[in-house]
Amino acid sequence: MNLRFLGTGSAFSMKNYHPNLLVEENGKILLIDAGGDIRFALRDVGMSSKEIDSVYITHLHNDHIGGMEYIAFTSFFDPNRSKPKLFCHKVLVEDLWSDSLKGGLSSIQGRILNIYDYFDVQPQETQTCFEWEGINFKLISSIHVFNGYSTIPTFGLMMTPKSGYNVYLTSDTQFTPDHLKEPYKNADIIINDCETSPFRSQVHAHYDDLKTLEESIKAKMYLWHYQDNVVENFDEWQQRAKNDGFKSFLKKGEIIQIPN
User: Which fold has domain 2-257?
Assistant: First the structure.
């Protein structure tokens, strides 16, 4: 199993693309999140939407779904391919369509369409698993945004190939080590949301908080979803991360091989 990081930047990154991740196995590709710049991120590695077999969506912010219209249209109007599978928590399906995709995708010449016309939708539940190419994916909720009334649904993944090697992707999350204690403990590798701005948004785990984690957790943690200040001084930030006990900041285009 290969993990290819098409982008590793924050929502407003101008230099590093949105946090789009490819899982590659058996010649198939699962795209985790499709940010608004996905077509450029794919182009930069010599790929296109034609090679995307399936998509998993963690939550409904633009840097995670802004490229879904591109995926949908380029798939729908290609007579040589079937609908890509769409995995996401069941609570996201209706809002993904009605609040984000419907305006651009509902009408084509002579027809009114819905999300099921574009994708083979596979709705999931919290703490349940789906399988793709022999890899188990377990949905794990994260605390990202509380709007004063409710927590906006966000779901990271524990990815486990047949080897039993666990890769935990937090998705966007606040610094909530107690909430994430179990997946942190069970993971062999952690890919963690990391804000690096001097002005805290309060909805992402900030670097200064993450460095207070237990050494055993940091030792298996990769950092991504960072601001452009890291890109501008990457070597300095990378050395800082290693000095503070992290594995590293992930680079755009980096590939990690996971034992099968």
Answer: Metallo-beta-lactamase; Chain A (3.60.15)
